[in-house]
UniProtKB/TrEMBL annotation:
Domain AN1-type: 28-76, 97-149
PANTHER family named in the record: ARSENITE INDUCUBLE RNA ASSOCIATED PROTEIN AIP-1-RELATED, CDC48-ASSOCIATED UBIQUITIN-LIKE_ZINC FINGER PROTEIN 1
Pfam family name, one: zf-AN1
InterPro entries per the UniProt record, alphabetical: AN1-like_Znf, UBL_ZFAND1-like, Znf_AN1
Listed name of the protein: AN1-type domain-containing protein
Length: 318
């Protein structure tokens, strides 16, 4: 480094001499002499001054100790190198101003965007508000059209509402037609809250009938209703429990016997003669091969209906 124009980049004005002075023969063996006048001490670990580019012993390694002729030169080079480096945010415009404007609430006189009141931006309506009106309910956000949103003409809005109303009317008509085609008024689902269901199931367990030999953990307690053979003014009802491992077809046979409903599913191939099981809470007709444990839970209601077919969905409002 003694003969090089590129100075070492250490944090001090001096560095230890190792193989810096390659021009000196056997420098690692004989060391070098301190270049301070009147010292000339032989030092096997000399120090190199980055300012005056001379070597010194341990005692005279600093610029002040050897009265450096070019003191501060290394520091100036180091400072210039640091200033030449790129810094974070270089090439970007720094914001050195504050944009002041009134709160977006019409009747609010508060000026936001100052050093004391920065303001809060609402991402829903794309407006800026003071701290008092920062919440959505405080500036009536749901009734505001977002700034920058594409305006919607009255005709387009009316067409959208009309299409939605037609879709809802079509769905209601389909369900009403299904009910009229079946010619039946189906029961409503049992209470849907967890507490009400728990109370209903506990009461159902006290009155439900079934095979006493069936283990309690295998039982599913159900409300069962069916068409009466002599009248259509009401539906015969009963409370029964069945095994979780049964299929719906077996439940249908057992329920038909319990409610004394004629069951000719195995004798007639006509759909109008067959009984089907309708799940009130699920709003659908259950297939004969479905497992009870996977389709029903305790407290549900099933209805035995004749001639409705397997493909009539959602006969009641869910």
């Amino acid at each position: 480094m003694a003969g090089s124009s590129t100075p070492p980049s250490d944090e001090t004005s001096y560095v230890k001499m190792t193989d810096v002075q390659q021009s000196l023969p056997d420098v690692s063996l004989v060391g070098t002499h301190c270049q301070l006048e009147y010292c000339n001490q032989l030092d096997f670990l000399p120090f190199y001054c980055q300012s005056c580019r001379k070597t010194f012993c341990l005692d005279h390694r600093t610029e002040s100790a050897h009265k450096c002729a070019n003191a501060g030169a290394w520091a100036e080079r180091r400072r210039a190198a640091q200033q030449a480096k790129s810094y974070a945010g270089e090439g970007r415009q720094l914001r050195d101003y504050v944009s002041q404007k009134p709160c977006a609430t019409p009747d609010c006189k508060t000026v936001i965007g100052t050093s004391l009141i920065t303001g809060v931006h609402c991402t829903s309506c794309n407006r800026d508000y003071c701290l008092k009106h920062r919440l959505k309910e405080d500036h009536d956000c749901k009734n505001l059209v977002p700034l920058g949103a594409r305006p919607q003409t009255n005709d387009a809005a009316k067409r959208a509402r009309s299409a939605l109303d037609k879709l809802r009317a079509w769905g209601s008509a389909k369900k009403e037609a299904a009910n009229q085609a079946a010619g039946r008024v189906l029961p409503k689902p049992k209470p849907s809250t967890a507490a009400a269901r728990m109370v209903a199931v506990n009461n159902l367990k006290k009155t439900a009938k079934g095979d006493d030999k069936l283990a309690p953990e295998k039982r599913v307690y159900l409300y069962v209703e069916a068409e009466a053979a002599t009248t259509t003014a009401k539906l015969p009802k009963g409370q029964f429990f069945y095994s979780k491992d049964w299929v719906i077809g077996r439940v249908l046979d057992a329920a038909a016997r319990s409610l004394q409903v004629e069951n000719v599913n195995n004798q007639s191939s006509k759909e109008e003669d067959k009984l089907r099981v309708f799940h009130v809470e699920g709003g659908r007709v259950l297939e004969f091969n479905e497992k009870v444990g996977s389709s029903l839970v305790s407290g549900n209601t099933i209805v035995l209906l004749r001639g409705i077919g397997p493909a009539i969905p959602n006969l009641i409002e869910p």
